[in-house]
What we know:
It is a single chain. The chain is mainly α. It has two domains: 2-242 and 249-388, no CATH class; 389-461, no CATH class. Helices cover 67% and strands 3% of the residues. It has helices spanning 2-5, 14-28, 31-39, 46-68, 80-91, 100-119, 122-129, 132-154, 161-169, 190-207, 213-227, 233-237, 256-262, 265-289, 296-320, 331-336, 342-354, 359-363, 367-381, 393-408, 412-432, 442-458; strands at 74-76, 157-159, 182-184, 325-327. Strands 1-4 form a two-stranded antiparallel sheet. A two-stranded antiparallel sheet has the order 2-3. α3 (31-39) packs across α4. The longest helix has 25 residues, at 265-289. The relative contact order is 0.21. The model is unreliable at 163-178 (pLDDT under 50).
Amino acid sequence: MNSFFRLKELGTNVKTEIMAGITTFMTMAYILAVNPMILEPAGLNWTGVFLATALAAGIFSIAMGLFVNFPVALAPGMGLNAYFASVIIASAATDTPISPAMGLTAVFISGIIFIILTVTQIRQMLITAVPDSLKHAITVGIGLFIAIIGLKNSGLMTIAVNSFTDIKANSFTPVIGPETVIQLGSFHNETVVFTIIALALIAILMVLKFPGAILFGILGTTIIALLTGHVDVKEKFEGKTWVPDFSKMDIWHFDFAGVFEVGLITVILTFTFVELFDTFGTLVGTANRAGIMKNPEEGKKRIGKAMMVDAIGVGGGAILGTSTVTAYVESSAGIAQGGRSGLTAITTGICFLFAIFLSPLVSLVPDSATAAALIIVGVLMMQSVKEIDFSDLVYGIPAFFTLALMPFTYSIANGISFGIVSYVLLASVANLAGKGKYKVHWLMWILAILIICRYVFMGGE
């Protein structure tokens, strides 16, 4: 192990690496409960998603450790799983409903695009093209998007039906009345109460810097819910077995013909675009924390290899039946515990593989606990807002459109689209007027033109 993982050279040992891997697993394990909860309403089987989540996280985390010697674990990503579900659910009311098979096909195709982009190194070029302000705004917008899903699922946020109906009837003209479009949920609702309990537990543990705060907050809430009868054990255990039922997995559940019939090009591009920046930020950030970038040449090579594992993971996760698999920023928790090599990622992956036998226990987790986890993840992603320079409106306005339109229009694609087009417009005008020297990469022009064509010829739906 010392020679294979270069432990001495990296200033670590087997014990430290294993403890770091377990720490990373503890901070990521919430995805085992959250991912099935998000994807089940989109038409995927709860057990199938649970097994796909555990297997994808296990297989590709181990691959990252073996082939890259990188202390970063992978799993289905927060944000893109929510986007996946929202696209399918929203399409149900249209003339062209999107099936779960079409959604998984779109993820698989985005994985193939990622492999091509990684091999040709265009991936790095795209990252250079988009200004940092928009990259940070995308992170913040996805955080708000995730938080709104958590608030909605918990009942803490509800829609005032009368006001919404009035607004729609008047072509979205605001109506002055006692009700608002969005309002606070009832505190007589048990789910709301337990969500607040979960939020308090997770927040306190995080403030105390307790490793695995989200996971232990979820576990604590689940125990309270069981003791108070909020969770019906008999009902939750129904149909669940300790032996994994792989027959319920949506393996190779694809519909290529349906994808091109319905026209999911925008969805595929959104999966690709968002994952592009999310992964890059995670890999570079964790590499810096682990000291891998001290040798820039070697650091770039390892990040390039890590991007390839990540790209294969996207398609591999879709084959197993789950949304986009990506590198997890929670890996920084293991790095903080001393993880420096691929043995950390392998340990995390093995923990996820063992988790496939825990389906009945995970099913006991109440929706209130997973909703609270979503809200807290939103809080963590909001931290990137401090990196946006709102005093320079050429950056500030596009960043605002990006982070505001994602949650308020319930679409990650809308936020990114308005951000790109507005930046190209404002930066170009400022340059022509001699008000600044803003870089507008040629790829940004291509993206802006494609986006405008999409909204003009395909509508904004």
